[in-house]
Amino acid sequence: MQHATPAAPAVRETLERLLASETFGRSERARKLIRYLVEREQAGEADRLKGFSIAMDVFGKDGDFDPSTDAVVRVQAGRLRELLQQYFANEGIAEPVRIAIPRGGYVPAYELNAIRLPEVAKPAEQAAAAAAPAEHPSAAEDAVAPDASLAPAAAPVPSVARHLRFFWMAIAVVIAMLGVLILRQGSGALLAGGHLPATFESAGLTSSIAPSPVSEALPLVYIAVKASGADAGRIAASLRAGLSGFDTIDFIGRDTVDKTDPVNNPTSFIFDILPGPNTGDITIELQSMASGRVLLSRNLTPADSTPTAIEDRVADMLSSALPASGTIYNYIEQTGTPNGLTECLLLNDKYYLDQNARTHEAAYRCLETLANSGAKSSLVYSELASLQVEAVSDHYVYPPNATIEKAVEFAHRGVQMGPTSPYAHRAYGYVSSRLGNTDEAIRWMRKAYELNPYDLGMAAAYGYGLIFAGRYAEGTPILTHAAETFSGHSTWWDYGLFVGDFMLGDMNKAIAASMALRTTATKSHYLAARLIGAKAAGQDSLVTTLLNELNTKFPKFAADPRSTFVERKYPADLTDRLVQALRAAGLGSAS
Predict the structure, then answer these.
(1) pTM check: above 0.70
(2) DSSP one-letter code for 155
(3) From CA 383, how far away is CA 223, in angstroms rounded?
(4) How far apart are CA 525 and CA 375, in angstroms?
């Protein structure tokens, strides 16, 4: 199966063609910089792509380099972005992979090009071109131009403009054909379990053409900077970077100072950056633009605003405000203004807070309805993928005949419709982990984390993935940092912390994590973690209570916990340690 994230060979081939192009032939520095950035990212060293290391490795700066006084990296990165845009709009218009350097960082991003410029017009395309409306004669004439190049006589090389005219004509024809197919076949193929690749391609072609329906509208978030100084500027920059990475909102990336914005939309919100109560303090307020109500307020001292601290402070605030469990969505629910997608995301969050068949079915049916109506949001499909896995793992009645294969299809579509979506990458990583593909799961989880380091949920998912890949020493500190920075986390964070600390031998922390677990009617392994923690803490009466509960509610697990851990693709060493601990706690023979 082809992933939406381009494979490494395809990225390398595109890079080599780009380096040999006329566009990049004029700039040795740009060639050197793009090669370095792509090769480092492909080698898994994206965390090294900082201004200081780039200055030393690419531009030969020494250890005394000061980015505040020497802007060589920022200037060259800006020039590189311009050249990339120029290349993919002209010489590289037919490249299968597009490379970009998103603003605010130096880590390359890749996107599959859904349509490649054909080298030779096929007969069907020529016939379609002949039937084009008469008011576009140039398009019809250019459509047959490539065929003329097949004649024995030498013909001039088509210009970029001619390629572009042909390209747009081809798009029009393909879209028209897709429209007919969609009308004939409907959009239920995905949920009916049909074959999806053609659907994915059509989504890639049309998602940028048709506007999102109102049912898929997300909360609008603005920013207003009303404080001055270096700290205010640093906070504003960090806030913008964080807001742009969340899938659950639409960030309007401009300041609203001295501008009038519509305030009639009940789902419009604004972050005000204001002078704080004390000298040097900065206050950030989240406010509803319709009601004027302040929903969240944080005061940052000069110590909170330092370069080393500001990202954690902003990440904590945004993780509290922007996800479906956060302040904005809670306000939308309280005021009775959720639309189709926001309502589904609220139901989805309720499931993860209280995991049972009823909350699962409510979330799944809501998202399923959007998918059946041809939803364009990648969130719909990525969350359906995760819920499909939950249905398989916990044997929910709905949806009927749930399979990991269907979860893969949903995850695939989610990534194709949102190639830079952290949620889509996280879902694909989750599905990959349930398939037992550890390396693939970690790759997708890490990408989700890199796409939005301000979303502590993505950091937690990456840490959790590392832990359940057997990389306890790597994953536990990441998950611990996320949990310590953001207290309002889901139960699965606590379970991941229990496992990580348990395998690292820190039983005091493992006991604390197990006690924080909220057990549910479907999570036998949560109850098992609490049992292990209670036994380690010497709480004998609680051990007796938990043993009785496990034997009564989960007799199959109590009889053979090993099979559950194996089914969930736990690492072998983790499975052995858990089984031994459960046996020591008195759970039957514990297999």
Answers:
(1) no
(2) -
(3) 28
(4) 35
DSSP element (H, E) containing 336: none
Q: Spell 498-525 as b/e; 16+ CB within 10 A means b.
A: bbbbbbeeeeebbbbbbbbbebbebbbb
Beta strands in 79-161 (DSSP E): 97-100, 109-112
Longest dimension (CA), the chain: 93
Sequence-distant (6+) residues with CB within 8 A of 367 are 344, 348, 380, 383, 384, 387
**Which residues make beta-bridge pairs with 287?**
270, 294
- Pairwise pLDDT comparison (408 vs 2), residue with the higher score: 408
pLDDT digits (tens, 9 = 90+) for 475-516: 999 999 888 877 567 788 899 999 999 999 999 999 989 988
Distance CA 176, CA 213 (A): 20
Amino acid, single-letter form, for residue 281: D
Structure tokens at 513: 């994590």
- Lowest-confidence range among 132-146, 164-178, 310-324, 422-436? 132-146
For residues 412 and 3, the answer to whether their CB atoms sit within 8 Å is yes
Q: How far apart are CA 524 and CA 508, in angstroms?
A: 22
Structural contact between residues 47 and 20, judged by C-beta atoms closer than 8 angstroms: no
pLDDT of 227 above 70:
yes
- Going along 197-280, which residue ranges are E strands? 220-225, 250-255, 268-275
* CA atoms in the 13 A half-sphere facing the CB of 276: 19
> Cis (ω within 30 of 0) for the bond into 571?
no
What string of H, E and C letters represents the secondary structure of 449-503? HHHCCCCHHHHHHHHHHHHCCCCHHHHHHHHHHHHHHCCCCCHHHHHHHHHHHHH
Average of per-residue pLDDT across 436-442: 89
The three-class DSSP label of residue 294 is strand
pLDDT band at 97 (very low <50, low <70, confident <90, very high): confident
